[in-house]
Amino acid sequence: MAKKNKMKPRELREAQKKARQLKAAEINNNAAPAIAAMPAAEVIAPAAEKKKSSVKAAGMKSILVSKNKMYITSFGKGNSAVLEYEVDNNDYNQTQLSSKNSSNIELHGVNEVNITFSSKHGFGSGMKINTSNPTHRSGESSPVRWDMLGLKSELEKRFFGKTFDDNIHIQLIYNILDIEKILAVYVTNIVYALNNMLGEGDDESHDDFMGYLSAKNTYDVFTDPDESDLSKNIKGNIKKSLSKFNDLLKTKRLGYFGLEEPKTKDTNALEAYKKRVYHMLAIVGQIRQSVFHDKSSKLDEDLYSFIDIIDSEYRETLDYLVDERFDSINKGFIQGNKVNISLLIDMMKGYEADDIIRLYYDFIVLKSQKNLGFSIKKLREKMLEEYGYRFKDKQYDSVRSKMYKLMDFLLFCNYYRNDVVAGEALVRKLRFSMTDDEKEGIYADEAAKLWGKFRNDFENIADHMNGDVIKELGKADMDFDEKILDSEKKNASDLLYFSKMIYMLTYFLDGKEINDLLTTLISKFDNIKEFLKIMKSSAVDVECELTAGYKLFNDSQRITNELFIVKNIASMRKPAASAKLTMFRDALTILGIDDKITDDRISEILKLKEKGKGIHGLRNFITNNVIESSRFVYLIKYANAQKIREVAKNEKVVMFVLGGIPDTQIERYYKSCVEFPDMNSSLKVKRSELARMIKNIRFDDFKNVKQQAKGRENVAKERAKAVIGLYLTVMYLLVKNLVNVNARYVIAIHCLERDFGLYKEIIPELASKNLKNDYRILSQTLCELCDDRDESPNLFLKKNRRLRKCVEVDINNADSSMTRKYRNCIAHLTVVRELKEYIGDIRTVDSYFSIYHYVMQRCITKREDDTKQEEKIKYEDDLLKNHGYTKDFVKALNSPFGYNIPRFKNLSIEQLFDRNEYLTEK
Question: Global pTM?
Answer without folding.
Answer: 0.88
